[in-house]
Every structure is written in C-alpha cells, then in structure tokens.
Write a structure and sequence with these properties.
By secondary structure, this protein is mainly alpha-helical. The protein contains six helices and two strands. Strands 1-2 form a two-stranded antiparallel ribbon. Helix 1 packs across helix 3, helix 1 packs across helix 5 and helix 2 crosses helix 3. Keywords: Calcium, Calcium channel, Calcium transport, Coiled coil, Endoplasmic reticulum, Ion channel, Ion transport, Membrane, Transmembrane, Transmembrane helix, Transport. Calcium-selective channel required to prevent calcium stores from overfilling. It comes from Parnassius apollo (Apollo butterfly). This is Calcium load-activated calcium channel.
C-alpha cells in the first residue's frame, strides 16, 4: 500500500510537470500571452496605486477613470484566459488518456487508508471500484486528484507560471466577487 501511495504521488508530480511543460510550449512562450501578461500586470499595479492614492474620497471623474481601467483590465484578463483555454483542451485530452490508463492499472486496489470517513457524496470517488464496505480505503483516483490539486499549484509557483499577486488581487477571474467599493 505504501509503495502504491508513493507511486501515485510520483505520478502526480510527473504529470504536473508534463502539464506545465505542455502549457509552456503551447501558451506561456507565445508572444501574445507574454504581451497580455505584461499588460495585465501593468494595469493591475496602476489601478491598485490609483485606488490607494485616492482612497474613498473620489469625485465622479476619478470614479469614471477607475471604472474604465477596471473594464480594460477585465477585458485583458478575459483575453488571457482565452489564450490559455485553447491549450487546456489539448492538455485535458492527454490527461484523460493518462488517467484512464492509470485507473485501469490501479483498478480495485486499495492504495491508501484514509484517517477519516469521507462524507457521503465523496465516498463514491474515494472508494471507487474498491471491494468491501470500509470507506476509509482509498482508491487511486481520489489520491491522485488530491495530490494533483496540491502539487500542481506549487509547481506553477516554483516555475513562475502562477498569476501575479496584483492581478489576482484585482480579480478578473471567472468566479471573482464583483467590486462594489466605488458604487
């Protein structure tokens, strides 16, 4: 069981590096992505400085300028996401093939023992294709997903591919909360 668990962590690390490598080839090294990233970082810092400089005492003219800059930043973030999305389909297809291959290798094998009983709607994933009723037994897919979720973000930070803090702070993400500071 320990050997399988360590192998799954190793597989997760390798697939994260493979994914980031493919993303670098298809996205990060392109001129369009690099220009958009620089523009988003520049606009984020400029907008943050402008908000800090004026604080809450804004007249209508400053509010309009900030709203226009926020709109430009949102548009650039959207364009950046579109550039990334094209390659994500290719990477998603490759990882689906890899996942099905590894899933067939580890099918029906307990790869880890969970220190808790998962909640009912996660049990189907954590106990997938495992015999018995011991829900602390962990399947390949559950451990792989947990490892990949934690490892991939750290590898992105390590390689410098994670979004800048200024851009993240300004939002522009798909599920970001709306900015209501100036309304």
């Amino acid at each position: 069981m320990w050997g399988d668990s360590l192998l799954i962590v190793f597989i997760s690390i390798c697939t994260a590096f493979l994914g980031e490598g493919l993303t670098w080839i298809l996205v990060y090294r392109t001129e369009k992505y690099q220009k958009l990233k620089v523009e988003v970082d520049r606009q984020s810092k400029k907008l943050e400085k402008r908000k800090e400089a004026h604080g809450d005492s804004l007249d209508k003219q400053h509010k309009k300028k900030i709203e226009r800059e926020e709109e430009r930043l949102k548009n650039n973030n959207r364009d950046l996401s579109l550039v990334k999305m094209k390659s994500m389909f290719a990477i998603g297809f490759a990882f689906t093939a890899l996942l099905s291959m590894f899933n067939s290798i580890f099918d029906g094998r307990v790869v880890a023992k969970l220190p808790f009983h998962p909640i009912s709607w996660i049990q189907g994933l954590s106990h997938r294709n495992l015999p018995g009723e011991d829900y602390t037994d962990c399947s390949f897919i559950f451990l792989y997903i947990l490892c990949t979720m934690s490892i991939r973000q750290n590898i992105q930070k390590l390689l410098g591919f994670a979004p800048s803090r200024a851009a993240s702070k300004q939002g522009g993400a798909l599920f970001a909360a709306p900015a209501t500071q100036f309304k």
